[in-house]
């Protein structure tokens, strides 16, 4: 079956989806008529309610999909005046591809390129064409690689793949909206689910064929070498992009800081990590494709490209950045369009790294300081109180909380790594050391002469009573004030915590509660007694709220506040949490509540670990 017939079938199935919805609504109307014709009173009302619930989800989903319109175009609009060389290149590629050039070019913060077309009359009338180019591709690609990517996207125009994009968008939206509202036990929804799966199989086969057709245009206008090079480079750039945001931006962003050049730093990292990226390029691309994939695998696409007739093209290995008079300025303009800094402190990269690493170090220390305060009975503690525990031979009482698998006699030696961080914090606040930013390796703590700070030996001395005085002498000699390291957040928060489990309608102290299990504690959110669609309810909440903000709004119980656990029943879970404050919290799992993935096992494991920690202490 060729691509045109597949596309026609895909559109026909979309129409069929709406027809199926109308038929089901007609059936619902007929059932309601029959119910009230032959029954009356409470029985008719109950049956009618079942029909309305069963078929109402279908109606709501279809109605929302029909009313929803695609959003406004994203990204930074690049006019011919902003990037004349890029526009010239795109125009030349459009001629080579045998299609009309796009009306707009937009810069987007993604490792991707895409085209859209605002069509009318189900794709019969052409409309505004837009080409989207990801800034990381422009930062890292050669001219040849960029030609290949642009040629591929223009191939979607020449193959008329974008003409039905709006129809397909609405169809997929209708499917998603309708199926998301159909419960597991809704008989009316079973037909839609089966139809939806069939539609996705057919439509995904269409898009995979269209990608291969667009690849043919890419090879024709840019050459097989450029096309395969770009295809192999995209996963490398994507991995570097994810690493950049995950390791360089996210941790500081969560701490309330932001770099002043969000996108510009990526190019520095990309070239600084050349050796690591070269190893990724040497790996063979994935060659497996699933029926649920919208794109063929990279290996399959490369093999198909190499099987095409060879086309001679002059090589151009110059950087694609030359197509801009100032790509850095364009990146800053894009940043202004798409990045919301909120109330974060915006800093140049070196200061951003230093501030973020310092805050992260303080957060880790605060966790230790809070435990030390509980142990010593003081409102707030710092490094000096911990040294007091060492001198009194009580460090094991504190250390066992962090190393629950070890005894009080064994734990102090393991605490040396934590002690090193605490001493380093005091040195940082004493201006003896500072954090040094680097694109080629992780940030590191260095002294005022740029040498790596080495506090390992002094930390080992500081965890034993018999060598504590020697450690203190060395710390003082280095100019470090131990009073400079003290708690900042005396109460634990959920800042930077990850979601590790979701359980809807758990009974917490007898009340219906949604349990959001975080990597730092339990988040309890009041829940309705209706246990239907609990997973969807929690999902919406997490999609629109930061967990740290939720923890400030609802009841958050950090793991560090739990002094012990007792599991009365394993299935369903019936357990108690005992807190340092003397409070007891009861948790009772419900058979009818929604549990996401392995969340129940995760909760059981957390309860076990907390219990073991308490037993060790």
TrEMBL record:
Cofactor(s) named in the record: Zn(2+)
Keywords: Cell membrane, Hydrolase, Membrane, Metal-binding, Metalloprotease, Protease, Transmembrane, Transmembrane helix, Zinc
Localization terms from the record: Cell membrane
Pfam assignment, any one: Peptidase_M48
Superkingdom field: Bacteria
Residues passing through the membrane, by range: 7-35, 47-66
Alphabetical list of InterPro entries matching this protein: HtpX_protease, Peptidase_M48
All residue ranges annotated as the Peptidase M48 domain in the record: 84-307
Topology within the bilayer: Multi-pass membrane protein
PANTHER family in the cross-refs: PROTEASE HTPX
Protein name: M48 family metallopeptidase
């Amino acid at each position: 079956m060729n691509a045109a017939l597949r596309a026609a079938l895909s559109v026909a199935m979309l129409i069929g989806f709406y027809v199926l919805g109308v038929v089901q609504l007609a059936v619902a109307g007929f059932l309601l008529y029959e119910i009230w014709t032959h029954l009356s009173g409470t029985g008719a009302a109950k049956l009618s309610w079942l029909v309305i619930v069963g078929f109402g989800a279908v109606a709501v989903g279809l109605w929302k999909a029909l009313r929803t319109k695609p959003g406004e175009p994203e990204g930074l609009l690049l006019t011919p005046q902003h990037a004349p060389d890029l526009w010239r290149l795109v125009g030349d590629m459009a001629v080579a591809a045998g299609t009309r050039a796009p009306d707009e070019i937009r810069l987007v913060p993604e490792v991707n390129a895409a085209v859209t077309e605002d069509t009318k009359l189900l794709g019969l009338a052409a409309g505004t064409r837009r080409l989207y180019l990801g800034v990381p591709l422009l930062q890292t690609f050669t001219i040849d690689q960029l030609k290949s990517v642009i040629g591929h996207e223009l191939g979607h125009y020449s193959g008329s793949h974008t003409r039905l994009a709006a129809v397909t968008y609405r169809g997929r939206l209708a499917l998603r909206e309708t199926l998301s509202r159909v419960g597991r036990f809704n008989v009316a929804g079973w037909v839609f689910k089966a139809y939806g799966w069939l539609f996705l199989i057919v439509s995904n086969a269409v898009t995979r064929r269209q990608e291969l057709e667009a690849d043919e245009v890419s090879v024709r206008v840019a050459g097989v070498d450029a096309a395969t090079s770009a295809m192999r480079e995209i996963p490398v750039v994507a991995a570097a992009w994810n690493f950049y945001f995950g390791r360089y931006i996210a941790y500081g962003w969560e701490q309330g800081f932001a770099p002043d050049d969000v996108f510009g730093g990526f190019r520095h990292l990309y070239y600084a990590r050349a050796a690591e990226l070269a190893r990724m390029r040497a790996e063979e691309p994935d060659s497996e494709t699933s029926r649920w994939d919208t794109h063929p695998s990279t290996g399959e696409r490369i093999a198909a490209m190499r099987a095409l007739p060879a086309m001679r093209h002059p090589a151009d290995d110059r950087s694609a950045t030359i197509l801009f008079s100032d790509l850095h300025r364009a990146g800053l303009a894009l940043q202004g369009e798409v990045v919301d800094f909120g109330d974060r402190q915006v800093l140049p990269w070196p200061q951003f790294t230093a501030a973020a690493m310092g805050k992260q170090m303080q957060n880790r220390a605060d966790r230790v300081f809070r435990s030390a305060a509980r142990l010593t009975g003081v409102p707030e503690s710092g490094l000096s109180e911990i040294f007091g525990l060492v001198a009194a031979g009580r460090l094991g009482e504190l250390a066992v909380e962090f190393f629950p698998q070890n005894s009080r006699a064994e734990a102090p030696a393991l605490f040396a790594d934590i002690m090193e961080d605490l001493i380093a914090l005091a040195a940082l606040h004493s201006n003896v050391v500072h954090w040094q930013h680097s694109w080629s390796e992780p940030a590191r703590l260095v002294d005022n002469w740029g040498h790596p700070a080495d506090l390992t030996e002094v930390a080992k001395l500081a965890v034993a009573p018999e060598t504590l005085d020697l450690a203190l002498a060395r710390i003082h000699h280095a100019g470090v004030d131990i009073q400079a390291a003290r708690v900042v957040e005396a109460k634990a928060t959920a800042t930077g915590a990850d979601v590790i489990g979701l359980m809807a309608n758990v009974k917490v102290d007898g009340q219906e509660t949604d349990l959001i299990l975080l990597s730092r504690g339990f988040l309890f959110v009041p829940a309705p007694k209706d246990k239907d669609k609990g997973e969807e309810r929690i999902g919406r909440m997490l999609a629109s709220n930061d967990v740290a903000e939720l923890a400030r709004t609802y009841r958050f119980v950090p793991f560090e506040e739990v002094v012990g656990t007792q599991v009365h029943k394993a299935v369903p879970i019936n357990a108690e949490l005992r807190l340092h404050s003397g409070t007891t919290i009861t948790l009772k799992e419900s058979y009818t509540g929604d549990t996401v993935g392995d969340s129940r096992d995760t909760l059981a494991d957390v309860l076990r670990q907390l219990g073991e920690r308490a037993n060790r202490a």
